[in-house]
């Protein structure tokens, strides 16, 4: 077996030791004679796995008891609907910040359930910047303010947290667990699991408890956060295997030294890659320097006619999934927590070699 370096934006790389442990426990979880997949979600074993995962996530992120942590299904995309349904009445206004493709999807869905005020947009810069806070046109009585701290496709990241009156809602799908955040600044944080948490199929919502219980009447039972909160995310059958694997990733993160340690590593990886791109004279990243994502690094080649050869050569060099999102083209290297620094070094070495041969 030879595992290669995986730069996929999601489903993304998973720490190898996590996969090894999962393999060891696959047929017989800790001597109980069955796999996690085969356990009743209401068995003491699975409830224990679930509770431990939640406790470890709370510890990693410093989540207080004022917040419920929900383990859901449906991906971040389902949250685009759940958020307005749970946090706003149909005649209320919610403020949205448009910083790219994922913001736009969140806005489009929210419009079905609330009045949306796009308080700021980076469209004029082709989404290569983050609108300065003093330009935001926030509503007086917004039910909440939604933003996307890291745009996975554009590679644009906030390195500051907006200070707003209304509950702040953040789509952290592609930045969660990459560095510390102060959860107390947020009303709600959500993330699909398939980047920094674990395999696809699990969605995490961290929501301040005082925001629960106000869902619109049309809200499906399964999308009402209160249903999940009141039932420890086991109102119906949860994605038990993904929950277990997320728990293994949380343990791994704790072993790495937690989110402060991850930030140091993630900054080093990103600085190396952007540093090389900027000095290469061959590759280019379009994002303003202060807003460059630590997790998703889009770049283009000097001549897009070379894209195919670049990708084919990368594949041969053991560097997988570097093709940019289908909506923007070019390349994108996603360098989440589980992508080791050696992967970034190998990518830079390949990029150097390719530029020399084709420059
Ligand atoms: N928001 C962001 C920032 C994302 O990167 C993604 C997935 N790439 C989504 C939302 C949608 O997530 P899901 O596929 O889990 O619905």
Automatic annotation (TrEMBL):
Cofactor note: Binds 1 pyridoxal phosphate per subunit.
Domain Aminotransferase class V: 5-347
Domain of life: Bacteria
Annotated GO biological process: L-serine biosynthetic process; pyridoxine biosynthetic process
Alphabetized InterPro entries for the sequence: Aminotrans_V_dom, Aminotrans_V_PyrdxlP_BS, Pser_aminoTfrase, PyrdxlP-dep_Trfase, PyrdxlP-dep_Trfase_major, PyrdxlP-dep_Trfase_small
Enzyme class: transferase
Chief location of this protein within or outside the cell: cytoplasm
Binding locations of pyridoxal 5'-phosphate: 76-77, 102, 152, 171, 194, 236-237
Residues annotated as binding L-glutamate: 42
Recorded GO MF terms: O-phospho-L-serine:2-oxoglutarate aminotransferase activity; pyridoxal phosphate binding
GO cellular component, one term: cytoplasm
Cofactor(s) annotated in UniProt: pyridoxal 5'-phosphate
Subcellular location field: Cytoplasm
Pfam family of the protein (one): Aminotran_5
Reaction(s) the record says it catalyses: 4-(phosphooxy)-L-threonine + 2-oxoglutarate = (R)-3-hydroxy-2-oxo-4-phosphooxybutanoate + L-glutamate; O-phospho-L-serine + 2-oxoglutarate = 3-phosphooxypyruvate + L-glutamate
Modified residues (N6-(pyridoxal phosphate)lysine): 195
Family of this protein: Belongs to the class-V pyridoxal-phosphate-dependent aminotransferase family. SerC subfamily.
Protein name: Phosphoserine aminotransferase
Record gene name: serC
